[in-house]
Amino acid sequence: MEIITNMRKSIEEFQNVNIDGYIARNALYVRTLNNPNIRRDVVRRVDMAAAPDGISRAQISAGGTIPDEITTGAKEDIHPIWWIADAVIMNEAEISIDPTRWDLDVRVAMLECQRRENYTAINGDVNHNITGIVGAAQANPRGSIVASGASGNQENNSGAWDGSEQDGKMDPYEDLRLATGMVNPEFPRSSLNLLGRPESLNYLWSKNEFRETYVSEIAGLFGRADGSTDFLIPCDYMPANTVYVAAKHMNAGEIVIAQDYDVDADYPRQKGKNRYAEIGGWVGFEIHDPSGFVQVAIN
């Protein structure tokens, strides 16, 4: 059917043109399932309590020793796969005049789905018991950077990034040096990114007393070459006055795609000679290790 073909082309075009708009997929590891009908993703992880030395269940020997099976110390985490969708409706008369007329609404629906995916991956969803990057960072047992009153594994920041404090003291490099040190060391620095609102990340272009921008200094903390900025991910859905270090690693957190966005127009004709279709995809949000995410207060 020509209309469905055009709609699918619009979806593909949207995803290609707006690839940078998939903030969640840029911040988290993306895993595609080999069966689009899967609605529960089972992740098997090793219970470190089962390791005799607390390090690993793997054994070292001169050979001939039969190791324990991994299943004896593994736990299974079950993560739902969620349906993210928006609907479009079009009058048959409009479609007969221009079969591509539906494509405009498809682009709008895709944008709405993209926004929901991004927001959920970042902030989670209490009603569906989904933990996002923000919630994971707040649960990181290795610590966080706070504005003041640090306790336990927390550290106070070096001053507000906007330079508004009376002494004008600020040192984003030191704040992010401490923050990246709070990430599980099993996640390489090259996997780290920094998320924040555009205005929050913009402070990194401020200059220090040597007239050097902070952003040029911190690239190495994220495993990038000097001058690189590809680790910065601006997003309006982030909380104000905070930025987040996030490890894009399969053992930290994942966006799991069972079925990427597609069109389903297999519905009866609606009243008023209208046609109804859904644009949606089956997507999972999985946080495996909160120590892959660190919250940094910048106020």
Helix/strand layout:
Elements: H1 2-17, H2 23-27, E1 29-32, E2 40-46, E3 74-80, E4 82-91, H3 92-97, H4 101-123, H5 133-138, E5 145-146, E6 155-156, H6 172-180, E7 192-196, H7 198-202, H8 214-218, E8 232-234, E9 242-247, E10 253-264, E11 274-287, E12 293-297
Parallel strand pairs: 1-10, 5-6, 7-8
Antiparallel strand pairs: 2-3, 4-11, 7-9, 9-12, 10-11
Report on the structure:
It is a single chain. The chain is an alpha/beta fold and 299 residues long. 25% of the residues lie in helices and 26% in strands. The protein is built from eight helices and twelve strands. The chain has helices at 2-17, 23-27, 92-97, 101-123, 133-138, 172-180, 198-202, 214-218, and strands spanning 29-32, 40-46, 74-80, 82-91, 145-146, 155-156, 192-196, 232-234, 242-247, 253-264, 274-287, 293-297. The longest helix has 23 residues, at 101-123. The chain starts with a helix and ends with a strand. The mean pLDDT is 90.
